[in-house]
């Protein structure tokens, strides 16, 4: 049967009913036309009856939705300027949120790529005044023996070493691990096997595991390398396995462990003697039935037991701290990302307010359409559904634009992200980001369309028919004014946070790091002999353009593993001897001069300061002031841990202070982490960084430096060749990242607020054209008209400034951890922001005000 037949039958039946009703209404003296009119009035709205009957044959909501969609598309196509501005505004707001959320998702929400990642913990030691310290082999052994909450506890330490295999020497990162470390973080190797307990035996062949990158570039992806012996350092090693290509280490920044480590070998953990060096960073996996609260309680108990067993009786404040690995990984970046995410939320609300203002103006122009549709029988629910469909359609278009803008913004963010965000792997638009964008699109569609939908739900036919064609009254202007106030308030808060971050970055640029990094080239070599290092120093100093050369165990602001230990002055009571720590640095003579550090007292090291003479040290002014205030540090004795008999053969030793140097910022530009103690190179052989100060740019010196190393020993790899200024730049990267993103968000917020103010005033001028013409016709000056129009925005702007001030007072304390040398409540900061917003408001208002002043009174009155 034809699908149209039921409809045709119904139309025939409807006509019959109307004819019968017309016959009943006909009477003496009643014309046929009047009888038909009475019949229609008595029968009711035939269109509504027809729609109700057709709804029985097939779902009415589906047809209505399709009609609403087609009508919405027609309306958006009809108002192309409105559609373009609305989609662009939503695209920018949604795109900014998508970009920031993609970073938040990759860093804060995505689980670590490790087996049972939620049960992984990092275990820090509390030693003296250091609460995030590594552990010794003795401490790891004791923790393993006593734990009941962990099923595995492993350790890692990263140093520099030579790349295995044949070919040119190359220095790489080498991980010294316990035999159970890699299985904690990797399900299975790509080739071969993991370390086993028997690999730690003294008679076992020395084995290594290599990264996928080393396997490809050094061994040509040859699977036969597994199980065979290769050259490694000054000897050989058996390659036990190859790690997967995707494997990387994601550990907290304080560990100084890079994401990519090229070679691993094991360190045995047995019943070691107490008091050894603390160098292992501990990772543990909780039992399936345990939790971090119970693990911390157990760690407190174990720390107390270790203290009683430690041979160093001075260690009386040893502690253990257990944190979820993922939470500790992001502790340094969480605040920055969450604050930026809150900032893009403000941008989103501002964008919604702008589009809501546009829709309110558009809804006013469509009052006639809404009134006519309601008078023809459209219910309020149907009108609301129509507006909601149009809003959702507009939101979806804005969402698609936002995905494109968000992808571009994400690429820009990735290009500027600091090193602290690089270890978390790829940042991309995955299913979670797409779902977030979709949810954001639907939410914003409802939010920005709320006011127009609300006005559609309150259609008053009688009143609207009376006022049809008249301009909107105060109620509509009040709504738009409230939305502008919200935009200004949120923009004020964003500007306040941005200005604080920008001033922080400027202050960091002005920080004196304690040295001058300009024209200083650095590179690293494996542990050299003193004779070779001394000869290299002389050869480099003789190169054209070189003013001085030296060496240091740890460069300032470097990402290498740190070296620090207890110290105390002569006469310190036993119970206070192991309570404070200092960074230790091993240097050659001339180091301070080469990097531009300031020796404030005493002398530098000389070649005769070796192990056969009196042991000496240089301290920084912070330590000197702490230990010997007012009496001077020169000639004083200091007890430190050193290794004069060989690498890492640590023992306590008394040294005499011969010099005081101004404190050098070694870990951060904004904080003094620990004081510093410098010892001559002869007393602590270790991998060294060479520093060379030139009279000009350092770029041309790198190749000459490599040649000088090769002349002394061709097998020594040279790595990390870079200007010292790169370390300073890296230390500023996180503050620069936060400042640039905040400045970008504030700029977008200001532009959107500017568009909002301009749109409101333009709409006000269009709606009040007749009023302006009448005022000018009866004698109002153009200056009076300007004041009248400007008053429409000034009240909203001033209200927004007041709200923004209160909002910023409540929110800026959350920025405290990111600030340096800046106080959030600085009055000058607020004055500057008020000036900027008033200037933006004046610029936004200028064009509509000028348009109002040019209105011809006669034309305006004819417009009425």
Description:
Helix 18 packs antiparallel against helix 24. With 864 residues, this protein is α+β, with helices and mostly antiparallel strands. Mean pLDDT is 82; it is low at 464-473. A hairpin with a 2-residue loop joins strand 1 (120-127) and strand 2. It starts with a helix and ends with a helix. It has 5 domains: 5-58, no CATH class; 60-115 and 330-470, no CATH class; 129-317, no CATH class; 471-512 and 731-864, no CATH class; 520-723, no CATH class. 51% of the residues lie in helices and 16% in strands. The strands form 3 sheets. Strands 1, 2, 3, 4, 5, 6, 7, 8, 9, 10, 11 and 12 form a 12-stranded mixed β-sheet that branches. Strands 15, 16, 17, 18, 19, 20, 21 and 22 form an 8-stranded mixed β-sheet that branches. It is built from 28 helices and 24 strands. The protein is elongated.
Layout of secondary structure:
Elements: H1 5-25, H2 32-43, H3 46-57, H4 60-78, H5 80-109, E1 120-127, E2 130-133, E3 135-136, H6 137-146, E4 150-162, E5 171-177, H7 181-185, E6 191-192, E7 207-210, H8 212-219, E8 229-232, E9 235-242, E10 263-266, E11 278-286, H9 292-309, E12 319-324, H10 325-329, H11 334-365, H12 367-375, H13 380-416, H14 419-422, H15 431-448, H16 450-456, H17 461-467, H18 474-510, E13 520-525, H19 530-541, E14 546-552, E15 564-566, E16 568-569, E17 581-587, H20 591-595, E18 599-602, E19 616-620, H21 621-627, E20 637-642, E21 651-661, E22 676-680, E23 688-694, H22 702-712, E24 719-723, H23 725-731, H24 733-767, H25 769-777, H26 782-811, H27 827-853, H28 857-863
Parallel strand pairs: 5-10, 7-9, 17-22, 19-21
Antiparallel strand pairs: 1-2, 1-11, 1-12, 3-11, 4-5, 4-11, 6-9, 7-10, 8-9, 13-23, 13-24, 14-23, 15-17, 16-20, 18-21, 19-22, 20-21
Helix pairs in contact: 1-2, 4-13, 5-11, 5-13, 5-15, 6-9, 11-15, 11-16, 11-18, 11-24, 13-15, 13-16, 18-24, 18-26, 18-27, 19-22, 24-26, 24-27, 25-28, 26-27
């Amino acid at each position: 049967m034809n699908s149209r037949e039921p409809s045709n039958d119904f139309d025939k039946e409807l006509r019959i009913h109307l004819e019968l009703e017309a016959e009943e209404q006909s009477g003496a003296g009643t014309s046929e036309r009047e009888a038909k009119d009475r019949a229609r009035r008595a029968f009711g709205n035939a269109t509504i009856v027809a729609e109700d009957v057709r709804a029985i044959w097939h779902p009415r909501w589906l047809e209505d939705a399709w009609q609403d969609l087609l009508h919405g598309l027609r309306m958006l196509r009809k108002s192309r300027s409105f559609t373009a501005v609305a989609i662009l505004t939503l695209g920018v707001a949604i795109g900014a949120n998508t970009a920031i959320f993609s970073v938040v998702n990759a860093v804060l929400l995505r689980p670590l790529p490790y087996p049972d990642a939620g049960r992984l913990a990092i275990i820090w030691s509390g030693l003296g005044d250091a609460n995030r310290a590594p552990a010794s082999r003795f401490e790891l052994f004791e923790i393993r023996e006593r734990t009941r909450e962990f099923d595995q506890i492993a350790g890692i330490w990263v140093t520099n070493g030579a790349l295995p295999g044949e070919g040119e020497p190359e220095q790489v990162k080498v991980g010294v691990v316990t035999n159970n470390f890699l299985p904690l973080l990797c399900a299975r190797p790509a080739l071969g096997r993991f370390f086993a307990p028997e690999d730690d035996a003294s008679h076992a062949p020395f084995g290594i595991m290599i990264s996928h990158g080393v396997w490809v570039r050094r061994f040509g992806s040859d699977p036969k390398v597994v199980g065979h012996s290769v050259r490694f350092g000054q000897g050989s090693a058996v390659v036990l396995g190859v790690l997967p290509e995707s494997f990387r280490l994601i550990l907290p920044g304080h560990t100084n462990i890079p994401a990519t480590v090229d070679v691993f070998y094991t360190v045995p953990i047995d019943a070691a003697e107490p008091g050894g060096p603390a160098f292992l960073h501990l990772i543990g996996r909780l039992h399936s039935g345990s939790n971090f609260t119970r693990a911390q309680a157990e760690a407190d108990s174990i720390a107390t037991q270790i203290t009683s067993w430690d041979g160093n009786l001075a260690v009386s404040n040893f502690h253990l701290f257990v944190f979820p690995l993922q939470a500790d990984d992001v502790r340094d970046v969480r605040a920055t990302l969450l604050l930026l995410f809150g900032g893009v939320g403000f941008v989103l609300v501002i964008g919604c307010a702008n589009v809501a203002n546009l829709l309110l103006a558009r809804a006013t122009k469509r009052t006639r359409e809404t009134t006519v549709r309601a008078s023809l029988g459209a219910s309020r629910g149907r009108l609301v559904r129509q507006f909601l469909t149009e809003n959702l359609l507009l939101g979806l278009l804005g969402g698609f634009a936002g995905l494109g803008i968000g992808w571009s913004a994400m690429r820009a963010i990735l290009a500027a992200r600091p090193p602290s965000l690089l270890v978390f792997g790829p940042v991309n638009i995955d299913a979670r980001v797409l779902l977030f964008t979709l949810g954001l699109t639907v939410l914003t569609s409802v939010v920005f369309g709320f006011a127009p939908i609300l006005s559609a739900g309150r259609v008053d036919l009688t009143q609207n028919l009376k006022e049809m064609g008249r301009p909107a009254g105060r109620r509509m202007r009040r709504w738009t004014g409230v939305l502008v106030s919200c935009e200004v308030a949120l923009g004020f808060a964003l500007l306040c946070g941005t200005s604080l971050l920008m001033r922080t970055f400027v202050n960091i640029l002005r920080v004196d790091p304690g040295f001058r990094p300009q024209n200083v080239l650095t590179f690293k070599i494996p542990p050299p002999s003193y004779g070779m290092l001394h000869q290299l120093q002389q050869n480099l100093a003789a190169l054209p353009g070189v003013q001085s050369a030296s060496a240091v165990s740890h460069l300032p602001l470097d990402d290498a593993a740190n070296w620090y230990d207890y110290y105390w002055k002569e006469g310190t009571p036993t119970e206070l001897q192991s309570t404070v720590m200092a960074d230790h640095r091993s240097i050659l003579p001339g180091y301070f001069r080469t990097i531009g550090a300031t020796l404030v007292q005493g002398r530098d090291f000389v070649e005769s300061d070796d192990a056969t003479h009196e042991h000496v040290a240089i301290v920084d002014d912070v330590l000197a002031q702490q230990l010997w205030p007012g009496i001077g540090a020169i000639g004083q004795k200091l007890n430190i841990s050193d290794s004069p008999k060989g690498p890492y053969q640590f023992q306590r030793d008394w040294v005499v202070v011969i010099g005081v140097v101004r404190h050098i910022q070694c870990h951060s530009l904004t904080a003094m982490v620990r004081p510093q103690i410098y010892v001559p190179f002869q007393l602590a052989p270790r991998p060294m960084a060479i520093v060379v100060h030139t009279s000009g740019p350092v770029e041309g010196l790198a190749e000459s430096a490599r040649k000088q190393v090769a002349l002394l020993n061709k097998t020594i790899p040279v790595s990390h060749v870079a200007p010292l200024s790169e370390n300073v730049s890296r230390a500023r990267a996180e503050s620069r990242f936060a400042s640039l993103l905040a400045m970008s968000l504030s700029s977008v917020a200001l532009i959107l607020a500017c568009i909002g103010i301009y749109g409101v005033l333009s709409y006000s001028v269009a709606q009040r054209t007749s009023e302006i013409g009448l005022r000018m016709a009866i004698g109002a000056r153009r200056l009076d008209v300007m004041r009248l129009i400007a008053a429409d925005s000034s009240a909203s702007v001033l209200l927004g400034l007041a709200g923004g001030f209160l909002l910023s007072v409540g929110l800026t304390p959350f920025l405290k951890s990111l600030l340096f040398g800046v106080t959030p409540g600085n009055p000058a900061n607020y004055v500057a922001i008020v000036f900027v917003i008033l200037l933006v408001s004046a610029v936004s208002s200028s064009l509509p005000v000028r348009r109002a002043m040019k209105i011809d009174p006669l034309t305006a009155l004819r417009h009425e």
